[in-house]
């Protein structure tokens, strides 16, 4: 297990991750606030009504709970993570009537094909071993016509981007090219593929084939 994954699995890090580390690090990388990211997540996933939502690598559940509050009827959001300390924080801080949490591996999701109307993974694919396998699993559990969205690292062509890539790589973080995920989604038959790049992060969304 590399340094990045060991850090994510440490109980002390789970305490500060969503409250301090993630907001500060993402703002430094993108110039965007967590509030903006959450609003955009609701928009690109087209959340409404009784949608079934899967939040992969949910950490302490802040995004999962936020998304669940935008649902009505029989809608619900499931957060899945491999880290026990993160899931403990999720169960402690972000429980809700429409929210549930599962421990599992993003590379082998414990759900049948087409189980969810919206599938997302925000700020985690660069930490997961075999991220392409995890991305294909996201596509597998997506219902026909459902929405998929990710935010992940971007190989910026600048001195800061090159330094960040080198430093991140030393700690076990992967950095992806601009076309990596749009190409993967297109090859899987997804449509309405959209991408935004903000600094060192890229945001990619698409619609599953009907």
Automatic annotation (TrEMBL):
<protein>
    <submittedName>
        <fullName>Methyltransferase family protein</fullName>
    </submittedName>
</protein>
<keyword id="KW-0489">Methyltransferase</keyword>
<dbReference type="GO" id="GO:0032259">
    <property type="term" value="P:methylation"/>
</dbReference>
<dbReference type="InterPro" id="IPR013216">
    <property type="entry name" value="Methyltransf_11"/>
</dbReference>
<dbReference type="Pfam" id="PF08241">
    <property type="entry name" value="Methyltransf_11"/>
</dbReference>
<dbReference type="InterPro" id="IPR029063">
    <property type="entry name" value="SAM-dependent_MTases_sf"/>
</dbReference>
<keyword id="KW-0808">Transferase</keyword>
<feature type="domain" description="Methyltransferase type 11">
    <location>
        <begin position="54"/>
        <end position="150"/>
    </location>
</feature>
<dbReference type="GO" id="GO:0008757">
    <property type="term" value="F:S-adenosylmethionine-dependent methyltransferase activity"/>
</dbReference>
């Amino acid at each position: 297990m590399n340094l990045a994954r060991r850090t994510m699995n440490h109980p002390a890090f789970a305490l500060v991750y969503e409250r301090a580390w993630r907001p500060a690090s993402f703002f430094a990388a993108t110039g965007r606030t967590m509030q903006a990211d959450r609003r955009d997540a609701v928009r690109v996933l087209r959340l409404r009504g009784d949608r079934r939502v899967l939040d992969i690598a949910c950490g302490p559940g802040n995004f999962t709970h936020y998304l669940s509050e935008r649902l009505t009827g029989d809608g619900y959001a499931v957060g899945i993570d491999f880290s026990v300390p993160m899931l403990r924080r999720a169960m402690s801080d972000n429980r809700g009537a429409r929210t549930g949490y599962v421990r599992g591996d993003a590379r082998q999701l414990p759900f049948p094909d087409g189980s969810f109307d919206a599938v997302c993974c925000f700020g985690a694919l660069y930490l997961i071993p075999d991220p392409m396998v995890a991305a294909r699993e996201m596509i597998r559990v997506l219902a026909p016509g459902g929405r998929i969205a990710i935010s992940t690292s971007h190989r910026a062509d600048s001195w800061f981007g090159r330094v960040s890539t080198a430093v991140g790589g030393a700690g076990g973080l992967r950095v992806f090219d601009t076309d990596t995920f749009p190409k993967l989604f297109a090859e899987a038959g997804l449509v309405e593929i959209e991408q935004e790049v903000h600094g060192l992060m890229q945001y990619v969304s698409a619609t599953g084939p009907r």
